[in-house]
Amino acid sequence: MSRAIVVYSSKRGSTKQYAEWIAEDLDCEAVSITDPRMKGLNLYEYDCIIYGGWIRGSGIVDFDKFGKMLDDELMQRLIVFGVGMADETAENYAQVWGYSIGKIDPKNENKAILYILGGRYDPDKVEGFDKFLMKIMRRVLLSGSTPEAKGRANFMKDRIDNGVDMVSRENIDSLVKDARRKLA
Ligand SMILES: Cc1cc2nc3c(=O)[nH]c(=O)nc-3n(C[C@H](O)[C@H](O)[C@H](O)COP(=O)(O)O)c2cc1C
Fold it and tell me: How far is residue 123 from each of residues 30, 72, 119, 130, measured CA to CA in Å?
């Protein structure tokens, strides 16, 4: 029987929530990348491998670590999802892809699939280094000079300052369909 697995990295729960919903739909396990079970995990046992991580500075957190477990054969079974608060524009998608799948398969030869899912951001819950990083990102964002960049920046500034919650179960529908295709 075909099997799937979901591995995830989540700091404040939204990525974990998506991982659990996907695992429920596919009737498989969702394992945090920090779980001790990761050590004994044999990815060759799975026909569909799903990795989800929260997005920080356009990078999918811990994908570098997970990527080390992959070769060409496993990449062909891979679906990645990043969870963030930016809108899924072509520019954002390209950037996130470039920092994740693009780093290990720059020509996309293995056709790994990337989804970006709407996350949750609550400024009151962010602290320490993340808070500092967000302050810098906000400043860089607002330094954009073209009118288009300014418009987009104001939109993001509002989300950074006031928070946003885009987490919804429907967001996983296409990903689950792709996963079922890999399992068929
Ligand atoms: C320091 C920091 C940097 C972030 N950078 C990005 C980013 O570059 N792009 C984006 O879409 N979201 C960014 N976010 C938003 C998070 O990815 C979003 O809140 C996500 O849902 C968090 O996932 P979690 O609840 O699983 O931890 C950032 C959040 C923090 C705290």
Answer: 27, 39, 13, 10
